Amino acid sequence: MNMFCLLYKFEVKPDLEQEFRDGWHTMTQRLRDANGSLGARLHKADDGSWISYAQWPDREKWMQGESVISHFLSTTNWKECLAGEIKLLMELEATDDLLVFDSAKFNSDRGYRHLDI
């Protein structure tokens, strides 16, 4: 079975970008710890929106993780950072993977935050 990946899009209120990023880190960590997520990356797009690429071992694990997301959204004020709904852009099945990435070095060289795995 191949890795299951998702692309999410977020429209974030400009004055709440740091709070959005903090909440995204917390939610991603909870999904890794509780539901076996393989982690995620957060990107800022040219148009000012935010894109998250999330990886899961399979679709079933992701579906189980949806309850963690719902709980997080209902028990925190993180959704206040958003200027609209969270959009699931694509569900993807990885077929080939040639990505080689030393995220610890990349993050420390550029001042990015990294979730230790």
What does this structure look like?
Helices cover 38% and strands 23% of the residues. It contains three helices and four strands; from the N terminus they run βαββαβα. Strand 2 (39-44) and strand 3 (50-56) form a beta hairpin. The two termini are 22 Å apart.
Keywords:
single chain; 117 residues; alpha+beta; Alpha-Beta Plaits; four-stranded antiparallel beta sheet; 23% strand
Compact description:
It contains three helices and four strands.
Strand order of the largest sheet: 2-3-1-4
Task: Quickly give the CATH architecture.
Answer: 2-Layer Sandwich
What class, by secondary structure content? alpha+beta
Span of the ends, CA to CA: 22 Å
Average pLDDT, rounded to a whole number, is 86
Structural topology:
Elements lengths: L3 E7 L6 H19 L3 E6 L5 E7 L2 H17 L11 E7 L9 H8 L7
Antiparallel strand pairs: 1-3, 1-4, 2-3
